[in-house]
Specification:
about 260 residues; alpha+beta; Beta-Lactamase; 7 helices
Length: about 260
């Protein structure tokens, strides 16, 4: 089991139209992943719903739109993922087709040479210009316990605790890519390190199991509007990495010391 035990909306609060929509979308995506893949991913946590409720309506609308796109993406492309691709046409990653469709759905463009750096077991994550993870390959959920809503409304640096020197290097790479100072496909020179899930630790009684993970970054690459050239404004980032669960449970995870 990955994620939260709670699968239905048992959280009691006065819901706006966007509150109702986000619950509907994340429950639909969660059910889809449970049905069509090996991953049991929670739709939301209490903490995530509380934060979503406090957002400005414009930010809620943007989040709901991203979920709607992801829902449509999964429903329209899942049958074409690895299991239906002829073995004589191997891909560098079993979910490449889904990643490329996600880029299209989110109106983003990726350099083709990025795929030459990707290994089949890599986790691939797409972030928008606000630092929000809008898409991740399914294998991301092998080592993450966060709900879909946690991932949707929180910047990456509010979800995971890392060693300070690693965090500094990540900011250098992400800021360098977003500013255009770094271009093309960039190898991330960051040593293997431990990452701790921290955002939803208070939701453990609801079924959340905080964990620490051994992470190694691969490459980072800018994303662009498909209508523009590769020397135009950067509108997102794609990152590759590998991850292995180090500890599970609050007690063991709290004992992990980050240097």
């Amino acid at each position: 089991m990955i994620g939260f035990a709670k699968k239905k909306n048992e959280f009691d609060f006065e819901k706006s139209i966007h509150d109702q929509q986000i619950i509907s979308h994340v429950e639909s995506i969660s059910s889809f992943l449970e049905r069509e893949s090996q991953y049991d991913v929670a739709p939301f946590s209490n903490q995530a719903l509380l934060k979503f409720k406090s957002l400005e309506e414009s930010k809620k609308e943007k989040a709901v739109q991203q979920l709607k796109i992801l829902n449509q993406l999964l429903l329209s492309t899942y049958s074409f993922i690895e299991k239906d691709i002829p073995k004589e046409f191997p891909l560098p990653h079993p979910e490449r087709f889904l990643v490329e469709k996600a880029l299209q759905f989110f109106d983003l463009k990726l350099r083709d040479d990025f795929w030459a750096t990707v290994q089949p077991h890599d986790i691939l994550e797409i972030y928008n210009e606000d630092g929000i993870q809008v898409f991740r390959t399914f294998n991301f959920f092998e080592t993450s316990g966060y709900s879909l809503t946690d991932l949707l409304i929180n910047e990456w640096y509010n979800l995971w605790e890392r060693p300070k020197f690693v965090l500094q290097r990540i900011f250098e790479y992400s800021n360098g890519i977003m500013s255009g100072e770094m271009t093309g496909v960039v190898k991330m020179d960051i040593s293997k390190h431990i990452v701790k899930e921290i955002y939803s630790a208070t939701d453990e009684l609801a079924g959340f199991t905080p964990r620490s993970t051994l992470v190694e970054f691969g490459h980072i690459c800018p994303l662009y509007n498909p209508k523009n050239n590769f020397d135009s404004k950067v509108t997102g980032i794609i990152v590759s990495s590998t991850a292995q669960t180090h500890t599970m449970g609050s007690e063991d995870t709290r004992k992990v010391i980050l240097f």
